[in-house]
Amino acid sequence: MFMIAPYLRILPAKNMGQGVFTTEDIPAKKVIEISPVLVMSYDERVALDKVKLHDYIFEWNSSQKQCCVAWGYVSIYNHSYESNCEYEIRILTMRPIKSGEQLFINYNGTFNNKKPLWFDAI
User: Fold this and answer.
1) What is the 3-state secondary structure (H, E, C) of 4-23?
2) Residue 95: CB partners within 8 Å, gap ≥ 6?
3) Are 48 and 59 contacting, i.e. CB atoms less than 8 angstroms apart?
4) What's the rounded Cα separation, in Å, for the pair 105 and 87?
5) Residue 61: its pLDDT value, please?
6) d(CA 70, CA 53)
7) What pLDDT is stored for residue 58 in this prediction?
8) Could you tell me if 24 and 103 are in contact, meaning their C-beta atoms sit under 8 angstroms apart?
9) What is the pTM of this model?
């Protein structure tokens, strides 16, 4: 199943290139996107670590030896340590979100994980 809520928009995001924004208020715990993925092997992940696509892949399975590319908007959501969404191949809001607000995920895998990333982040 593939789904992107009709009120999501990709727009310029200050100091972040592009980001995903909403044109409507969204309640907490609402699934706003379900994304298909392309799962890649350990060898493919090692190769991806050498190219720009590395910044857009997600760890896959508990061993973290595989990765996936998520289609839809998933790879466009920007990171925040104070993220308002969580991803599980779907995007789930973690708190109410106001119309016009940018939607964030935490690249560490859980919405409240403060572990430093490989780049300077908000």
Assistant:
1) ECCCEEEEEECCCEEEEEEC
2) 28, 84
3) no
4) 7
5) 80
6) 12
7) 86
8) no
9) 0.80
Task: Please tell me the distance from the alpha carbon of residue 75 to that of residue 77, in angstroms, as a whole number.
Answer: 6
> How far is Cα 67 from Cα 28, in angstroms, rounded to an integer?
28
Successive 10-residue mean pLDDT values, the chain, 122 residues: 94 94 97 93 92 88 85 92 90 96 89 85 74
Residues making up the chain, counted from first to last: 122
Helix or strand (DSSP H, E) at 103: strand 102-105
Q: Tokens in use for 32?
A: 């706003």
Joined tokens for residue 121: 């982040």
Residue with tokens 């208020």: 25
Look at the block and give the residue holding tokens 């409240």: 112
Tell me, letter by letter, the H, E, C secondary structure of 26-81.
Answer: ECCCCEEEECCEEEECHHHHHHHCCCHHHHHEEEECCCCCEEEEECCCHHHCEECC
